[in-house]
Amino acid sequence: MSASRPLPDEPTVGPLHPVTTLERERWADGDFEAMSAEDVLRWAYAEYGRKLVLTCSWQKQSSVLVHMVSELGLDVDVVELDTHLFFRESYETRERLVERYGLTLIRPEIITVAEQHRREGPNLWERDPDRCCHIRKVEPLLEALQPYDAWVSGIRRDQSPSRSGTPKVQWSERYGVWKIHPLADWDEKRVWAYITVNEIPSNPLHQAGYRSIGCIPCTRPTRLDEEERAGRWAGSDKLECGLHSEAPPPNGG
Ligand code: SF4
């Protein structure tokens, strides 16, 4: 399915828990901090309907949000941000979630790893990981978000200092959409409690010490006394892939 397919004007499936008039009045003041993750999603769906999209990279937050959206009966498109460099376990997790929740994934166009080697030289992630993330993550996301007005992402404040100020709702100049972060105030324990109680398929690499999981070349396990994302681009000063940055992309791209 193409990321640029036209969207229907109205939601095709109504929420199982429709927003009441009282809630609309209460939510009108925009006090998102006081809302539960479920209510942030319900508010966003009431506001943006089929112009709301969820992105997944098959970490534990993806498991939570896919389940939550399903439980709430929200007809939200799911975009897979696949760099073609994920672990086998991440792809297996994707298949289990697709099967359980009947997901139809939207997959943005991305150049193959071989083509990237040809254009940029081998192993760009070793020489210029910002450029590599831009090609394999940011550019595909920019394309994927074109048809939408709001983007649901699973980032959380306690994942790293660089995410500690994450609001639950935020305008993104870079992508031209509202960013919705229903799990912003969840900690790692709460994520696992939700997954366990609801018996949601999750990435088995988390149990092998990979508390944060990205591409194979840039991910190592993380000790409990480290920050959750310490295993990403370990040994470099890179902290983020750039997906959640508002800074201009590298190389003007
Ligand atoms: Fe490239 Fe590493 Fe970024 Fe993946 S995480 S896109 S391999 S630099």
Features:
253 residues; alpha/beta; 6-stranded mixed beta sheet; disordered N terminus
What does this protein look like?
The chain has 253 residues and is an alpha/beta fold. 33% of the residues lie in helices and 9% in strands. It has helices at 21-27, 37-48, 60-72, 88-101, 113-120, 124-127, 129-144, 188-197; strands spanning 52-56, 77-80, 105-106, 150-152, 169-172, 177-180. It has a 6-stranded mixed β-sheet with strand order 3-2-1-4-6-5, with helices on one face. Residues 1-6 have low confidence and may be disordered.
What's this entry about, in short?
The chain has 253 residues and is α/β, with parallel strands linked by helices. It is 33% helix and 9% strand.
The topology string of helices and strands comes to HHEHEHEHHHEEEH
- Secondary structure tally, helices: 8
Largest sheet: 6 strands, mixed
Query: Low-confidence segments, ≥5 residues, pLDDT <50?
Result: 1-6
Record field, number of beta strands: 6
SSE-based structural type: alpha/beta
Which ligands occur here?
A: iron/sulfur cluster
Strand order of the largest sheet: 3-2-1-4-6-5
Oligomeric nature of the chains = single chain
* Rg of Cα set: 18 Å
- Helix coverage percent: 25-40%
Which range does the strand content fall in? 5-15%
The average pLDDT value, as a whole number, equals 88
How is the topology of this model organized?
Layout: H1 21-27, H2 37-48, E1 52-56, H3 60-72, E2 77-80, H4 88-101, E3 105-106, H5 113-120, H6 124-127, H7 129-144, E4 150-152, E5 169-172, E6 177-180, H8 188-197
Parallel strand pairs: 1-2, 1-4, 2-3, 4-6
Antiparallel strand pairs: 5-6
Helix pairs in contact: 3-8
Bound molecules: iron/sulfur cluster (SF4).
